[in-house]
Amino acid sequence: MIGAQQPAPSAPDSTVRAAHLIDDHYNHLQSLRSAFTESYEGLGMHRSESGTMLLRKPGRMRWEYSSTPGKVFVLDGKFAWFYAPGDSQVQRIAASQLDDLRSPLRFLLGHTKIESELQGLTLVQNSGSFTLSGVPRGQQKRVTKLTITATTTGSITGILIEEADGALTRFTFSSEEPNAQIPESLFHFTPPAGVPVVDALPPV
Questions:
Q1: With CB atoms 3.0 to 4.6 Å apart as the test, which of 21, 62, 94, 180 could cross-link to 54 if both were Cys?
Q2: What is the pTM of this model?
Q3: How many helices (H) does the chain have, and how many strands (E)?
Q4: How many domains does the chain divide into?
Q5: In a domain, 113, yes or no
Q6: pLDDT for position 99
Q7: How far apart are CA 84 and CA 89, in angstroms?
Q8: 1 within domain boundaries
Q9: What CATH code is carried by the domain that includes residue 71?
Q10: Which range marks the domain in which residue 173 is found?
């Protein structure tokens, strides 16, 4: 009908379509800047941190923690680097061996397919958003459930990781800036003078 208003975006009507919606959103991005909050609850501990996440293809990621100035996690495409001021060493691990609880965030880099990465996918639709839940392949002994919350345009706003020991890790994202101008230099890490680099063992 001429002059009719276009309907507002609605939640996806199938689990497969929802997974593809997220995949397509990140597959078409070249870079991304977003605010994040990361929290952990487990083993009698509760920790919450926040900062800015930067992504750039291919395979580059940087997390700057404003809650702990100077703390960074940098993935330069070859190695992942972990350091916080006051640490006695810089931890480094080959990107090919990185399989810790940050690995589900590779969905944001747009080089995975949720449908094949998560087993037993289920979909819950909400007003203006939806959630996908499943079990990460190869991590069944450690992770019992991973839940992704996204907008109806496929933008991830949250990831919840439930571990076998009952621990919960939550990531929330806001103020997304697709294809932001991010200098390549931010994805290179130079260890502080006098701080040794230790090759960390890959997670069991």
A1: 62
A2: 0.84
A3: 2, 12
A4: 1
A5: yes
A6: 57
A7: 9
A8: no
A9: 2.50.20.10
A10: 15-180
Distance in angstroms (rounded) separating the CA atoms of residues 47 and 15: 32
pLDDT in tens, 29-56: 999 999 999 999 998 899 999 999 999 9
Chain position carrying tokens 């890490």:
189
User: Residue 122 — φ and ψ, nearest 5°?
Assistant: -130, 150
Question: Contact 49/194 with Cβ under 8 angstroms?
Answer: no
Q: Which residues fall within 8 angstroms of residue 81, CB to CB, at 6 or more apart?
A: 72, 73, 74, 75, 90, 91, 92, 189, 191
Query: Residue for token digits 């609605």?
Result: 10
Q: If you ran DSSP here, which 8-state letter would residue 189 be given? A: -
Cis peptide upstream of residue 69 (ω within 30 degrees of 0): no
Q: Which residues contact 131 (CB under 8 A, 6 or more apart)?
A: 123, 124, 147, 148, 149, 150
Whether 189 is covered by a domain: the verdict is no
- For residue 16, give both structure tokens: 């497969």
Residue 72, token pair as written in the block: 């960074």
Element (H, E) at 90: strand 90-94
Q: What CA–CA distance (Å, rounded) separates 115 from 45? A: 33
Would you say residue 23 lies in a domain?
A: yes
